[in-house]
């Protein structure tokens, strides 16, 4: 902790031209206050981001979003060049992450993106470098 305080003291001295213990204490207090504004670790957030971090899963979510309708595995396969089993596994991971909704009709299972998936894709699209 002392080393961290020393670095902060040097930073404040560079910013203000001088620094005292009260300046360091005030800065540390304000930094610690930010912690209360950060939500507790959200496993759901980390799971969703991890799910989108895989090329197959990312492509499937993009496809479902672009289709603007439910698709079944047999419709996803021609676009995503992996086995039906890999697609089913990816869809299961996406479902567990809350990024796709599914429903079964007879022997067919249909998938569509959730609102959360659509919002994440929109955020990625809006913040992609080079597209501004």
Automatic annotation (TrEMBL):
UniProt key word Membrane: no
Pfam family, one: HTH_5
MF GO annotations: DNA binding; DNA-binding transcription factor activity
Gene3D superfamilies per UniProt: Winged helix-like DNA-binding domain superfamily/Winged helix DNA-binding domain
Transcription regulation found in the keyword field: yes
Domain HTH arsR-type: 38-132
InterPro entries noted in UniProt: ArsR-like_HTH, HTH_ArsR_DNA-bd_dom, HTH_MetalResp_TranReg, WH-like_DNA-bd_sf, WH_DNA-bd_sf
Keywords recorded for this protein, A-Z: DNA-binding, Transcription, Transcription regulation
SUPFAM superfamilies tied to this protein: Winged helix' DNA-binding domain
NCBIfam families, per the entry: HTH_metalloreg
Name listed for the protein in its UniProt record: Winged helix-turn-helix transcriptional regulator
Gene source species: Natronomonas salsuginis
């Amino acid at each position: 902790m002392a080393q961290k305080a020393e670095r902060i003291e040097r930073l404040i001295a560079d910013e203000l031209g001088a620094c005292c213990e009260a300046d360091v204490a005030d800065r540390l207090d304000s930094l610690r206050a930010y912690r209360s504004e950060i939500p507790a670790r959200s496993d759901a957030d980390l799971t969703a981001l991890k799910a989108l971090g895989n090329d197959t899963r990312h492509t499937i979510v993009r496809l479902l979003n672009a289709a603007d309708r439910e698709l079944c595995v047999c419709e996803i396969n021609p676009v995503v060049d992996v086995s039906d089993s890999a697609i089913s596994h990816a869809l299961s991971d996406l479902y567990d992450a809350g990024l796709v909704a599914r429903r079964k009709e007879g022997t067919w299972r249909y998938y569509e993106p959730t609102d959360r998936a659509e919002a994440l894709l929109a955020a990625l699209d809006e913040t992609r470098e080079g597209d501004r």
